[in-house]
Write a structure and sequence with these properties.
Elements (H helix, E strand, L loop, with lengths): L13 E4 L11 H5 L8 H11 L12 H15 L3 E5 L7 H13 L3 E5 L3 H7 L3 E5 L2 E5 L6 H33 L8 H16 L20 E12 L2 E12 L3 E5 L6 H8 L7 E6 L5 E4 L12 H6 L12 E4 L2 E4 H7 L16 H12 L6 E5 L7 H13 L3 E5 L3 H7 L2 E7 L2 E6 L2 H7 L31 H28 L4 H4 L1 H31 L1
Parallel strand pairs: 1-2, 2-3, 8-14, 8-15, 10-13, 13-14
Antiparallel strand pairs: 4-5, 6-7, 6-9, 11-12, 15-16
Length: 543
């Protein structure tokens, strides 16, 4: 702290859960977590460990970063200080552990301060909001719900004030040029005031903005993207998937949820052909171009620089240009591309290991988004990303023409993105449900808050043993019903234009390639119209 005071009343204990805890000197995670517990209080750690699915006997030397952070969280909760400072507590927790932690914090009498990007978690627990923006801390005496509207209002007022200041500076500068020579002595005060205005404007710090994320769809894939029939996978005695069917069509956004270790990543590898099933079959559609965002960040070389990670990637390399990368078919200077993802020039030559978790995620997104694709595999993409980047990623995925398979523990993000959710429930069971997390929870009979608006319309994903839908419509289905009339009108307009084009009797002789393309487009639009009309009738009847 450079200046100011920090005061803690006598007898008040403050506990801090940091993102990267120092476990040196401890043999096991349990030794670290119990290090400050009084004699006879080990039972508190056992209760917390059960809720967080945290193994106290795991050796520190073999523990992953996520397991170390769960140990730090367990240590803090077991110690029960009067004030808890929690830095990204939900990262690397599965949804079940997040909901357990949410329930614990909702009933505790202990004060706590949260840093988190998990909007569902923040909405459920917070009563006040501190917004840190360009060195200023603003406080709002209500929880996170409504934060985005407050932020946009503040920014709009700030922009208006800046525009007024710019107009005033422009007017005063014009006066200084045109009128000062005749009234030099009498108006030096006004000139000094102009200098003050300019100093005020130059001292204003511009908002950093968000990363310049963009996705380019590759060639259109076939309508069927993936079809799995009766697949099963086991490792030794542990059965991860048993007798599972799934059909994924072009444009679907399918989320995979379940406890850590239940087999979500394994199922993704089975569906994409990276792993072979023990029984059953997986067939991939035609013309697929796959891009993968892996939770282990395996595509990043921690010891290499950001520069070398981009220029050394075979998919981004530009032949004969050591300072260029190929971005969606166009060469771009590596530093300019890094700046699109909020890295400064000095960071370009820094090793990846020096980056924060959020910066590593942004660098991996930079690699992912440089290549065209029509099937995105996103394995825990939201870890460490700030809320603004999450919003932008959601918008980008909403406009993406391809298919998305998503593993995430962020309930809000799943609600905004997914058109179907596959729940892995242990002992080899996996079931597909239409809609996002809130729709899945509602169909399982769990109470849920009203979800955020999804990015796209829902399309059922066929799965063996799919749960029967309840009477009425889910949130996603209601949104689909509202969107269908506009979709139907758009398809009818496109069909009318194509019909006019095909009515030209000389088109085939003059331009056979265009005729074939228009004919294929007409068949595609007519099939889509029939599907949309059938969906509208089904939803309208059930509504």
């Amino acid at each position: 702290m450079d200046r100011g005071n920090r005061t803690v009343p006598p007898g008040i204990t403050v506990g801090y859960m940091e993102q990267d805890p120092d476990l040196s000197g401890y043999a096991t995670l349990g030794d670290f977590a119990a290090s400050n517990l009084p004699e006879g209080m080990d039972y508190k750690l056992a209760v917390v460990a059960e809720g967080l699915k945290f193994n106290p006997d795991m050796a520190v030397a073999t523990a992953s970063g996520g397991e170390r952070r769960r140990a730090a969280l367990a240590k803090l909760l077991a110690e029960e200080p009067e004030l808890m400072l929690l830095d990204e507590p939900t990262n690397h927790l599965d949804i079940q552990a997040i909901e357990w932690l949410e329930a614990e914090l909702s009933q505790t009498r202990t004060a706590f301060v949260l840093i988190s990007h998990d909007r569902a978690f923040l909405r459920a627990l917070t009563r006040a909001t501190l917004w840190v923006d360009r060195g200023e801390v603003r406080r709002r005496e209500s929880g996170f719900d409504g934060f985005e509207e407050w932020r946009e209002t503040v920014w709009a007022e700030e922009d208006e004030a800046r525009h007024k200041l710019d107009r005033k500076i422009k007017a005063e500068a014009k006066w200084a040029v045109e009128g000062i020579s005749a009234r030099r002595k009498r108006n030096q005060g006004r000139v000094r005031a102009l200098q003050v205005l300019r100093a005020e404007r130059s001292s204003q710090i511009r908002r950093q903005g968000t990363a310049a994320l963009a996705l380019e769809s590759g060639p259109v894939s076939g309508k069927k993207v993936i079809e799995a029939k009766g697949i099963a996978k086991a490792f030794g005695d542990k059965v991860l998937i048993r007798d599972f069917d799934l059909r994924i069509l072009r444009g679907d956004r399918v989320a995979f949820v379940g406890p850590n270790g239940v087999g979500k990543t394994t199922l993704l590898k089975l569906l994409t052909g990276e792993l072979a099933p023990d029984t059953g079959s997986v067939s991939l559609g035609t013309n697929l171009e796959i891009a993968v965002f892996d939770q282990a960040r395996a595509r990043l070389d921690a010891e290499a620089t950001l520069w070398d990670n981009l220029t050394g990637d075979p998919l981004m390399r530009v032949s004969g240009a050591a300072d260029q990368v190929m971005v969606r078919g166009q060469p771009k200077h590596v530093v300019a591309y890094l700046k699109d993802f909020l890295f400064d020039e000095a960071q370009a030559r820094a090793p990846v290991r020096s980056l924060s978790g959020g910066e590593k995620a942004r660098l991996l997104l930079a690699k992912l988004m440089a290549q065209p694709s029509n099937l995105l595999i996103l394995d825990e993409p939201t870890n460490d990303l700030d809320v603004e980047t999450l919003d932008l990623l959601q918008d980008i995925l909403g406009d993406y023409d391809g298919t998305v398979l998503l593993v995430s523990h962020d309930r809000d993000f799943i609600d905004r993105i997914a058109t179907a959710t596959v729940a892995l429930e242990g002992q080899g069971r996996a079931t597909a449900y239409p809609g996002g997390w809130s729709d899945y929870a509602a169909q399982r009979g769990q109470p849920v808050a009203e979800p955020a608006s999804p990015a796209g319309s829902s399309r059922p994903v066929a799965a063996k043993g799919e749960a029967a839908r309840p009477s009425g419509l889910s949130f996603t289905e209601r949104k689909r019903l509202d969107d269908l009339p506009n979709q139907i009108a758009r398809l009818e307009a496109e069909i009318a234009k194509l019909a006019t084009l095909l009515a030209d009797a000389d088109l085939f002789a003059r331009d056979p390639a265009r005729f074939r393309k228009a004919s294929a487009a007409m068949a595609d639009r007519q099939a889509a119209l029939a599907e949309a009309e059938a969906s509208w009738l089904d939803l309208a009847e059930r509504a």
